Each structure stands twice: as C-alpha cells, then as structure tokens.
From TrEMBL:
Keyword NADP among record annotations: yes
Keywords, in A-Z order: NADP, Oxidoreductase
Family in the record: Belongs to the short-chain dehydrogenases/reductases (SDR) family.
UniProt lineage: Eukaryota, Fungi, Dikarya, Ascomycota, Pezizomycotina
Keyword NADP recorded: yes
Name this polypeptide is given: Ketoreductase domain-containing protein
Record-linked SMART domains: PKS_KR (SM00822)
Location of the Ketoreductase domain: 8-191
Pfam families recorded: adh_short_C2 (PF13561)
SUPFAM superfamilies (UniProt xref): NAD(P)-binding Rossmann-fold domains
Length: 249
C-alpha cells in the first residue's frame, strides 16, 4: 500500500479530530501530501503536528458553503500541482430526537453539512482530478446509513443519502477511471460519538452489541480509508465497507 500512495495528494475534510485526524496521520505515514481542512483552521494544528510529513497545508472550510469548497480545492491544486484523493469526512454526529421535538434548524444543518457538504466538495474537486490516474473519493456514511434507528430520522436520512449519492457517482465517474467508495463505521471511540457523549452506561450498552466487545478506534477506520485509496483496491468502485466489529442486527 505504501508504494501506491507515496507522493499522492489527499484532501481531507473534518481533519481536526476523530476519524479525519487519524486518517491524516495514517496517510502521512504512507508518504502522502495532505490538504487538511475543517471549519476552524486553528483546530487543525494538532493534527498537522501529529503527521509524519512536512508536505501539509491547512485551510478553514465550511463544507456547506459551495464557494468556499471551490476556493479551497483550487488553492490545494495550485499549491501541490495536483490532487489524487478526497476523503469526505466532515459531518455532524447525531442527537436522538423524536421528530416533533426536533430543534429549529437541526434538519437543515445536518443536511447542509453531512450531505450537501459531500456534494459541494465532490463537485469542486472533479475539475482537478486527472482521468485514469487512480484518483478516488472515499465518503463517510454510517451503520445508520444501512439500518434505521428510532429517534435518528434526520441523521439516517443524510447517511442513507451519502450511499445513494456515492453509488451514483461511482457509475458516473467510473468511465473516467475515478472511483467512489464509502466507509460505514459502527460505534467508534471519538470525542463526538453519540454513545461517548451520552456517558459510560451508553458506551457499555454499545460495546455489548458488538461481537468483538468493544468500540472501534478512529485509526481502524483510517486503515480502511487508506486501503480504499490504494492500488490494492483499484477494482473497488461503488463499494460500501462496513466497519463495525460484528454488530448485532
């Protein structure tokens, strides 16, 4: 894997923490140059310092803003001279709400970031990707993009939509040699994971629903993301990879 990713330029959204940060660190070890983005640029400092390369730029990016997305993608290519892979990781984790209790603006916010953000960055990146050069997108869905959960209608809607969008883009871009794949994480130990936020009892319940008996780590998601970008996955297009430790149905 290291030889096929060495020297590649990867843009990561949501890189300030969690899965985005872990993926940046993983890819830096494999020799990638990185464009790290998050909604607040100063939050990216710790990620950049943890990476094993000096080939890094950082930028503030609100993925729900199409103009910002176009500008950051353009600046990335101007700086590095190329772009090879995009990891659409920025997103808002769910809060359980009955539909009638949904706070004003919650639906619009989740759709704007989780779904339209992936759309904006994908659209902005496409003019800069060289055809038949091994370029790819990896998008983040969720186990809740594959199975429903009560009190999570809005979040499920965005994550189901990511899979539909990604599979359609895989068909559209495949003839240009550009791949689009999806990771669907289960319960992952990150600061914003809903179970972690809810407290130890919720974490214990989540762990009991996983056959491996524990939450996953952000680094374990990063391993799969890196694989999907690599030449080892060059015939994977439109795939949805579940990473959930053996989650009970």
């Amino acid at each position: 894997m290291s030889s096929s990713l060495n020297g590649k330029v990867v843009l990561i959204t949501g890189a300030a923490s969690g899965i985005g940060r872990a993926t940046a660190i993983k890819l830096s070890k494999l020799g990638c140059a990185l464009a790290l983005t998050d909604i607040v640029e100063t939050d990216l400092g710790e990620t950049a310092e943890s990476c094993h390369t000096e080939k890094i730029i950082t930028a503030a990016l609100d993925v729900s803003n199409a103009d910002q997305s176009e500008l950051v993608l353009k600046e990335t290519v101007e700086y590095f001279g190329r772009l090879d892979h995009i990891f659409n990781c920025a997103g808002i984790n769910p809060t359980p709400y009955p539909l009638l209790d949904l706070p004003e603006g919650y639906f619009d916010k989740l759709v704007a970031v989780n779904l339209k953000g992936t759309y904006n960055v994908t659209k902005a990146a496409l003019p800069h990707l060289k055809e038949h050069a091994g370029c790819s997108f990896v998008n983040v869905s969720s186990i809740l993009g594959l199975k429903p959960s009560k009190l999570q209608a809005t979040y499920c809607a965005t994550k189901y939509a990511i899979i539909g969008f990604s599979k359609s883009m895989a068909l559209e871009l495949g003839e240009r040699g550009i791949r689009v794949n999806v990771v669907a994480p289960g319960f992952i130990q990150t600061p914003t994971n809903a179970s972690v936020v809810a407290g130890p009892d919720f974490v214990k319940s989540a762990e009991q629903s996983v056959s491996l008996g524990r939450l996953g780590t952000a680094a374990e998601i990063a391993d799969v993301v890196a694989f999907l970008m690599s030449d080892e996955a060059k015939y994977m297009n439109g795939s949805v990879v579940e990473i959930n430790g053996g989650l009970a149905n």
